[in-house]
Amino acid sequence: MLRRRIREIPESVRLITKSVVLCLYVGQSVKHNLLAAFRYLLRPLVRIAIRNGIAYPDFSGMVQDAYVNVAAAQLKASGRELTPDAISIMTEVSPEDVHELLLSPDDAKLSEAEQKINAAARILVGWHTDRDYIGPYGLVRDLPFARSDAPPGKRDVRGFVELAQRYCEGYPPKVLLDELVRTACVQDLGNAFYRALTRSYVPEQLSAESIRRFAQVVHNVIETLEVNLRRSESGVRRVERTVFADYGLPREELGAFDKYIRDRGQIFADDIDNWLSARSQEGQQGTVQTGIGFYHYVVNEEDERDFGKTFKS
Question: Considering the domain boundaries, does residue 308 fall inside one?
């Protein structure tokens, strides 16, 4: 009886059901591939973050803030009411967190991240301010890893282990020291002693301008690709071209290729600059900030392999 009823289901209902199942499958496939793509895109960003002492909680706070702000902008653009509940439904960020983020200044999370002092930073501050680790004339002492590692006659000097236990209890001293040496905050003197080279845990001395340029270039590239991904505006596409060696380039030719694209790229850039300069005048009304960018890439093989494992063609 049940089989007979199933056979009597109208063809239109079967088609609708099939379409819904297909849409769900396609939607899940797109979501899976986008998540794989985001993971791939994040790897170089996370490398920069780790090199500069930005831990996961700080980074995740920025992601949450971006979700809330983008959702708020989309609600405004669509003319819908801007409420924490509406944003929460779009982002799955709790309404309480949404409310707090909407009321906070734009840089509140950034200030919070800047004020957090991680274990490596606490070690360096203690090394430079604790009187037990400062020698004559206010000079910061070179330290052995442990007091027992110091040469005979110098074992009254407290070591790095004692410093770590005082300022970062619970963290393995060797792991902390290796991180500080890796990031060039501490130097291994080669005589069983270590020297603090900087008071702040800022492994890469990046200028504010270089960070701003990095953010703008990456943002503009992704913004262009995001526009080109939109199906609903398939007629509005921005120029994006990639030229690559089909079978790879001999490693010894990499320097020659770099010189070639620098020379040819400068000619191209000058042509574009001349064209824009003739049409860009100070005081013009109704302008839009626009331009072009080009870059030389070398594929990171490890990232590429990881992406290939997770992306479904």
Answer: no
